Amino acid sequence: MDAAFEVTEVFAPASREFVADPYPAYARLREAGRAHHYAPTDQWLIPHHADVSALLRDRRLGRSYLHRFTHEEFGRPAPPAAHEPFHVLNDHGMLDLEAPAHTRIRRLVAKAFTPRTVERLRPYVTGLADRLVAGLVADGGGDLVARIAEPLPVAVIAEMLGVPEADRPLLRPWSAAICGMYELNPGPATAARAVRASVEFTAYLRELIAVRRRQPGEDLISGLIAAHEDGESLSEQEMISTCVLLLNAGHEATVNATVNGWYALFRHPAQLAALRADPAGLVPAAVEELMRYDSPLQLFERWVLDDIEIGGVTIPRGAELALLFGSANHDPAVFDRPAGLDLARRDNPHLSFGAGIHYCIGAPLARLELTASLRALLRGAPGLRPAAEPRRNPNFVIRGLAELLVEV
Fold first, then answer.
1. Coil, strand, or helix at residue 347?
2. Residues whose CB is less than 8 angstroms from the CB of residue 213 and which lie 6 or more positions away in sequence, other chains included
3. What's the whole-number average pLDDT of the chain?
4. Residue (of 159, 215, 9, 186) closest to 86 by Cα position
């Protein structure tokens, strides 16, 4: 690591300019070393693809440390008591568990969340995408976020879970409030919104699970209730946390990948023209490239459970790593011309869905949704173009646009 390099002069997630385009800063981080301590959050930034990929699989790290240590043993303060509803909800989901609890829950969830389940949704997803695009075209355009990017994945995961249509408007606000806690240093107002949403969402799902126990259906909640293996099943809290995780992870990334992707296409007209000329040939690779080019999840955190060494730097137990997905996906050691958008890119080992035991279980569904909306817009709105400069969300970790106005 370059001793003269000042991380805070480069990595500035509170800066509007940095959030608008963090990729030049990532290049400087990669050039300066493999691990950089970032004092404002007391985290180690890891910018290289090889390191991020390896560390996602390294069992000396964990999403949690509570399977091995207490807060006191690990040298970390316990969360504030007022935040308990959020942490109960969050800490019983697969994403923040380690083996053996993670292994048991993921195995049981996989019994209900099968490729067959996803494939059965294909007609619903493609039909909904076509209807949403037809509505956008009939109105001459509108906000791509509100008209396409948000309603498609929210409706799909709600359909999958078996959430009644009348209740679906509740889901996105709850999800957005909870996901605010995944940003760096969330403030008291963010925490209060997340706690309130956790309480309300938990109560809603508890009631819905009770209904499905009495009246099972073909939905995922009924499948989670029925899932058993070697005498084990999911507890009610584990089912609730799993449903929230599937909703949050199952649509937040897809919403932002959709609008980030179209914003990238608008800024690369030659690539968009090539895609329009050969959608059948380019759409599958385009989905992967758009996920790589402007990743919807920029950072993923891991706790150091045992001392590790990265690039000659010893990082002790109790430290926290910030694995920079956005930087890894632009690493020239792995990607040819990484700053360029290449929809025909074939060798594309991007890390947008993670890796290792926490690899996104919903990746096949996300790919289905992204493919369906991309094809529907190319087919139904062949002249789609931006109508104004987009309005960006201020968040860094979960990267996306608040508004993308388009004309047809």
1. coil
2. 225
3. 94
4. 186
Q: Are 187 and 400 in contact (CB under 8 A)?
A: no
Number of alpha carbons in the 13 Å side-chain half-sphere of residue 168? 18
CA dist., res. 152 & res. 280, Å (int): 21
| 202 confidence band (pLDDT: 50, 70, 90) | very high
Residue 132 · residue 154 · CB < 8 Å:
no
Beta bridge partners of 297: 398
* CATH fold label, 7-407: Cytochrome p450 (1.10.630)
Tokens of 281: 């040939």
Which residue, among 343, 141, 337, has the nearest Cα to 261 in the 3D structure? 343
Take residue 291 and report the two structure tokens written for it: 């996920």
DSSP H or E stretch at residue 45: strand 43-46
User: How far apart (Å, rounded) are the C-alpha atoms in residues 14 and 379?
Assistant: 39
- CA 384 vs. chain centroid, Å, equals 26
Rounded distance between C-alpha atoms, residue 386 and residue 182, angstroms = 30
Are 399 and 295 in contact by the 8 Å Cβ rule? The answer is yes
Among candidate residues 291, 37, 338, the one with its CA nearest the CA of residue 46: 37
Cα–chain-centroid distance for residue 325? Answer: 11
pLDDT tens readout for residues 257-275: 999 999 999 999 999 999 9
pTM, entire model: 0.93
Give the pLDDT band of residue 233 (cuts 50, 70, 90).
confident
